Amino acid sequence: MTVVAIIGGSGLTRLKNLEITRREVMRTPYGEPSAPLVFGRLSGREVLFLPRHGAGHTIPPHEVNYRANLWAIRNADVAKVIAVNAVGGITTDFQAPGTLAIPDQISDYTWGRAHTYFGSDAGQVTHVDFTHPYCAPLRATLIDAAGRAKLVLQPRGCYGATQGPRFETAAEIARLERDGCDIVGMTGMPEAGLARELNLCYACVAVVVNPAAGKVQGDISLKEIEKQLEAGMAKVRTLLEQVIPLIKD
Ligand code: HPA
């Protein structure tokens, strides 16, 4: 039984400590996922890994086939998903690069992405509840695991999902802040909404890799982001190793 699927974002196209057992190329009614699904053992249990931006990190946020990715995971009989997302930090407690957060809310500013399985071809109009967009028990397990691993993290936060691939203007970030967003990223939606439509238990580990636009003097430095991605993902690996044994079947 595969206990959890891990969707890796920028900086996490591979799980170094995963003992890979097999790779599976999946086709779905929505096309191909970002990469073959990688199955393997982590902390003694079977997990599935999928790099959101492709194995070679070539698919930009607005072109990720989110529907195929989530469908493939569901079809592999996996019920829980941990999504890893690099983000910019907006509010004070979330600004420092290297900060980890387990957000509890989302505001969606993306547009033009295939964002639902319930289009007119589904045959009937279907709505899903999304009041609490992330799976509370899985969030709690992640927060517990971070404590055990002595990793400091923000146990909440509102994720503002923007379209990208450009970063935001300072004015856009000011607007997101007024809207109550603590962090900003380009891949949180429609992924979380699709997971809900498929009844998956889905939680996000957000890794701050830069202060959002206008939050510090000067422009956003890609070089600095690269550096922070590496350091941040090392923490994520530790968190993942710690959380896998704690996940209930
Ligand atoms: N904005 C949007 N997405 C991001 C950022 C940002 O500042 N940093 C990492 N992903």
Quick summary of this structure?
This protein has 249 residues and is of the alpha/beta class. The protein is built from 5 helices and 11 strands; from the N terminus they run ββββαβββαββαβαβα.
Give an overview of the whole structure.
Strands 1, 2, 3, 4, 5, 6, 7, 8, 9, 10 and 11 form an eleven-stranded mixed β-sheet that branches. This protein has helices at residues 66-75, 136-148, 170-178, 191-197, 222-243; strands spanning 4-8, 19-24, 37-42, 45-51, 80-89, 100-101, 105-108, 153-154, 158-161, 183-185, 201-211. The radius of gyration is 17 Å and the shape is globular. Helix 2 packs across helix 5 (222-243). With 249 residues, it is α/β, with parallel strands linked by helices. The chain starts with a strand and ends in a 6-residue tail after the last helix. The structure holds hypoxanthine. Hypoxanthine binds next to strand 5, strand 10 and strand 11.
Unreliable spans: none
Measured on Cα atoms, how large is the radius of gyration? 17 Å
Q: Assembly state here? A: single chain
Q: Look at the helices and sheets and give the structural class.
A: alpha/beta
| Count of helix runs | 5
Each distinct ligand: hypoxanthine
Number of strands: 11
Q: What overall geometry do the principal axes of the alpha carbons give?
A: globular
Helices and strands, in order, run as EEEEHEEEHEEHEHEH
Mean pLDDT: 96
Strand content: 15-25%
Percentage of residues in helical conformation: 10-25%
The profile of the biggest β sheet is:
11 strands, mixed
Calculate the terminal CA-CA distance, rounded to whole Å. 9 Å
